[in-house]
Write a structure and sequence with these properties.
311 residues; alpha/beta; Rossmann fold; two-stranded parallel sheet; 12 helices; globular
């Protein structure tokens, strides 16, 4: 796949994908609200939900692969504006999938583990979703729209962490920033998940496309842990004080949108397709720490054009 179009290129996943593949592929990123400064790849500013914008961008870039990462991912924002959430998370993916099919472009659409209610856990791709929030409901509708419009597309249910433009988009950044400042934080003991380091996720998404796979896949770590234990592991890897993390329930956090307590997902289908197991948690933490040593957070935050314009 030499020509890759990445939507949501200023988001945590989209930006890391663009940076990771910019030197080996012809990558173009699409941004809407958050401009990038001195990006090492071409950037298009577009509101893909506006009439005609999908066709304009695809005609301009002629992608062989579309990695659709753009979404309205803030759970509380989705609860406050469900129509906007549906437009971005449900309707736009279907339109983009249909356009990709017409052009014979491969497409990978990013969905979420939150489509499940988290009552049972260890969900496989054949288990029936039961979304609890506006965000989760609109993302599930997006999955359905993508596969209805383009059966050759991949829908990847994900959960990931890494370094973001603002330095505050991932759970790892939340723990690192607060613990570095000596602040006490909550760690949910009653929310289980299988987060994957974003750069490992990027490689797997590209591999799914290169293998011409299609359909629904759970693209997460092979191991689960609580958000409290996630925070403690981050503290250990970065030499921070894990006693600042107070074990608590998500119900104590004053959150608007309901959280699914057990979002452990089976990766058996994906492991079979790839011929190997998915990365475990310690491997991901080691990769995050090495990327910190290598200076990746600084590379990313220096690309925040919005932050620069206000300084």
């Amino acid at each position: 796949m030499s020509r890759i179009l990445v939507t949501g290129a200023s988001g945590l996943l989209g930006l890391n994908i663009c940076l990771q593949f910019a030197s080996s592929h012809a990558v173009t990123g699409v941004v809407h609200h958050h401009p990038l400064q001195s990006a090492p790849f071409p950037v298009i500013h577009a509101d893909l939900s506006a009439p005609g914008e999908v066709e304009r961008v695809l005609a301009l870039t002629q992608p062989e692969l579309i990695l659709h990462c753009a979404a309205l991912a803030n759970l509380e924002a989705c609860e406050n504006d469900p129509e906007q959430a549906r437009q971005v998370n449900a309707l736009l993916p279907g339109e983009l999938a249909a356009a990709a099919a017409q052009r014979s472009s491969r497409m990978v659409h990013i969905s979420t583990d939150a489509v499940f209610d988290g009552i049972l856990g260890n969900y496989s791709e054949s288990d029936a979703p039961n979304p609890l929030s506006v965000y989760a409901r609109t993302k599930l509708e997006g999955e359905q729209n993508v596969l209805a419009a383009n059966p050759h597309a991949v829908v990847a249910r994900v959960n990931f962490y890494g370094w973001s433009l603002s330095g505050s988009r991932s759970l790892a950044e939340f723990f690192i920033k607060n613990l570095q400042e000596g602040k006490s934080v909550r760690g949910f003991t009653d929310v289980l998940f299988c987060p994957l380091f974003v750069n490992d996720l990027a490689w797997i998404l590209l591999e799914l496309a290169e293998k011409s796979l299609s359909g629904l896949f759970h693209v997460v770590s092979s191991e689960a842990l609580s958000k409290y234990d996630f925070g403690r592991a981050i503290a250990r890897w970065f030499g921070l004080d894990d006693s600042l993390i107070a074990p608590s329930s998500w119900k104590e956090g004053g959150l608007i949108a309901a959280r699914s307590p057990n979002l452990t997902l089976s990766t058996q289908k994906l492991a079979s397709a790839l011929g190997r197991a998915l990365p475990g948690q310690e491997y991901g933490f080691s990769r995050l720490h090495q990327s910190f040593i290598d200076g990746l957070p600084g590379v990313i935050t220096r690309m925040d054009a919005g932050a620069r314009s206000t300084n």
